[in-house]
Amino acid sequence: MKINFILNKEAVSIDVDPMKRLLDVLREDFGLMGSKEGCGEGECGLCTVIYDNKPVTSCILNAIHADNKEILTAEGVAEEPLGKLLIECFDETNAVQCGICFPGFLVSSYHYLLTDGEPVLEKIKTALSGNICRCTGYKKIFESVLLACQRKKSGEA
Amino acid sequence: MKFYKPTSLPDLFRIVNDIEGKKYYLAGGTDINVQIKKDMIKDEPVIFINHLNELRGIFEVEDKIIIGCLTSFKDLLESILIKKHLPYLQKSLNAFASPLLQAMASLGGNLANGSPTADLTPPLLVLDAKLKILSRSKMRIIPLAEFYRGYKQFNLKHNELIGAIIISKQAEAGYDCFHRKIGSRKALTIAKIGLAGLKKAENGIIKDIKLAAGSLNEYPRRLIKLEEYLVGKSIDSLNFTDIEEILQKEITPISDLRSDKEYRWQVTVNLLETFLKN
To answer: CB 3.0 to 4.6 Å from B196: which of A35, A49, A94, B122, for a disulfide?
Structure first.
């Protein structure tokens, strides 16, 4: 089935099994390896992408869900000014350990920064509650997002 | 796997009428894709419905709130109408999974998946929610409590679909509302126990009470016998020996990978005590 969508701000079209997992479409058909597979059941957040302006787990979406929608992957987020700010803050606070969860955290954090951005720890924790870090480095991750929120608020970004 | 994408609601029912055997409706995909991964769904036909926007939305019709089956948990959490009329229901939604799943998971899908642990079913049961069930030429309305008939067994014919969920705007008014989900962590956890309750008391006497439990039976259900027993009782002199005896007939806690039956039993009794005495 022919599926048309906007991927990282570019119109794309693909002939694909409509039930193919969106995660596999992104990785195999478009070579976007930022989205990882962890649990494959929507519980770990390694495959988080922005879909229709909301962060979702792409491992439990199908190609058909993308039809006529807009998708921003970790690669796309990294090109955005707020994505760059987040990467800078993750870097400064040494928030990334093994790194596999990082693209997912980046996408969820980006959405929070874009739609809310209030530097409030409890709100950040809720926004990131769908992403799991097996190194359990949450403290530094929350600190880096808090820092990004503060910088955005004070107009440094 | 045969795949269908209906062009409209009439087209959907035309397709559905032609498929006699087992089939799956694909909305947000959050349950179905896990079941495909686990080989629980193999070759059954899949009908995509997520684009049928007439099945989505939250509406106020006279004294009722109507929630289209495709409405997501995120839509419900952000709804001004739900906040105004059903704040208890809105608060209960926070127990569900994570923001990433709340964005995709639909209310209709959550009910139709029929998990014994479904987070929102106990609150919906105590709110006396009803289901509007659609087919090609008919529409019927049934109480949610009559939808479940066993583990993943439903009061639903092969050509039917849950179209909407209906709740009275007054469903919470004047009640003390209670909802607790017991899991292993705060977010992204499957309930070991879910308990919902609404209570009206006057001068220390229980005038009206509604109780529903999840993860404690083959499907979430109302605790009718316990409700009947509790009406008219004084809160200060409740007899918990009697209450436990009735509760034993109402729930069948099991031991599984998430918890064991002794824990489930004791915590349910504790939660019940907390709710009844406050």
So the answer is: B122
Looking at CATH, the fold of the domain delimited by B1-48 is given as 3.30.43
User: What mean pLDDT is predicted for residues A95-112?
Assistant: 96
Q: Which of residues 9-38 of B touch A (CB under 8 A)?
A: 26, 29-30, 33-34, 36-37
Domain spanning A2-76: which superfamily? Answer: Beta-grasp domain (3.10.20.30)
B170-229 pLDDT tens trace: 999 999 999 988 888 777 788 888 899 999 999 999 999 999 998 888 889 999 999 999
Superfamily name with CATH number, domain B176-277: CO dehydrogenase flavoprotein, C-terminal domain (3.30.390.50)
What are the sequence ranges of the domains in chain A?
A: 2-76, 80-152
Residues 125 through 144 of chain A touching chain B, CB cutoff 8 Å: 126-127, 129-132
Instruction: Say how far apart CA B57 and CA B61 lie, in whole Å.
Output: 12
Backbone φ and ψ of B93, nearest 5°: -65, -25
The nearest alpha carbon in chain A to B28 belongs to A61
Element (H, E) at B272: helix B261-277
